[in-house]
Input
Amino acid sequence: MIQEINRLADNIKSLLAPYGKNHNVHEPYFDKNSIGNIKKCIESSYVSTSGQYVNDFKKKLSLTIGSPRVVLTSSGTASLHLALNVIGIEDKEVLLPSMTFVATTNSIKYNLGIPHFIDVEKENVNIDSVKLEQYLKLVSVIKNNRCYNKNTKKEIKCLILVHAFGHPADIDKMQKICKKYYLEIVEDAAGALGSKFRSKHVGTFGRFGIISFNGNKIITTGMGGAIICKNSSDYKKIMHLSSTARMQHPWKIEHNQIGYNYRMANLNASLGVSQLKSLNKFIKNKKKLHLMYLKLSKDNDLFDILENTNGNSNYWLNNLILKPKYKKFKVKLIKRLHENNIFVRELWTPQHMLSMYKKCESSNLDNTIDLWQRTISLPSSFYNGL
Ligand SMILES: Cc1ncc(COP(=O)(O)O)c(C=O)c1O
Output
């Protein structure tokens, strides 16, 4: 069996060989315009929270997403923090997949909420709607149009729907369940810029959607994020909170609540403007890479590639799922690839396994654990010439 694993590592190496010698899971790609815009931004002296590029990026991002209510922020984490702050989750439970990046869970704690973990689908990384509904039926009770956890007596306020690795979750089913159980939806579309469900951009279905422009995302602003707001009163609140809750006045510096300094800087937005122009090119390129990995999986019998099952994915990150009988060789495969300068990674360690979240309530998480034990993220950068 170990020979088969070594052969698999060699196959991955050959597949990536035309695109360089070192491969990280995701690297940003910059063209000449990126440097031009950054230079112009510095020369303008408007490098901070106001300027031409924040306005321009916001406008163009709104058009890409198809929402007039987009707020630019300093990170995906800041976006989640603000969205949950406006919903109001103090001492309330928030459902989320255990298979997510730690920022999703942390943002609940920042707002004094209580994380409550749900399992993902078998062979998929998004929340399992069947398991979710069965679980809610078992643990919750509805009173006065609110959903309560029978065990803890706390209100279950909302669901954070993660579109993991760019693949849209089954939004139709989630919306139905959330309506029935009076749950708000926040879409964590951190890695899903360009992904669509029923021809609509992900992040536009829930009360809020968030996006990340961190250096490892499909487009980057260095660090940065965005919040998509369903309604205009939320949009106004988010705009206000993200800019230190400062009141409009020609000379006074006054604030009417505890706000946050979470706006995106013009310097970051100058990079966003040029990156956004390449989004369609990046998505096409990533789809090609995905098909190459898929072919490799069909040509041997060791693994599957995590496929998109809902709508249109941006194919941000490709993930290799070892067949169960090869599960024990995962670390061997990772080490063999690292020796060949292919720096693959494990999936996010499930949140319920992290020391600070071990005691949180959860559904049965068998699929999450199984997927985590068998899956690695493959190099998925934009490969020029692919
Ligand atoms: C699912 C998910 N949520 C939130 C974030 C946080 O985004 P940021 O790194 O921009 O704070 C990430 C970042 O990787 C993510 O993958």
Remarks:
- The longest helix spans residues 279-299.
- The chain has two domains: 2-26+279-378, 32-277.
- The mean pLDDT is 97.
- The CA atoms of residues 75 and 224 lie 4 Å apart.
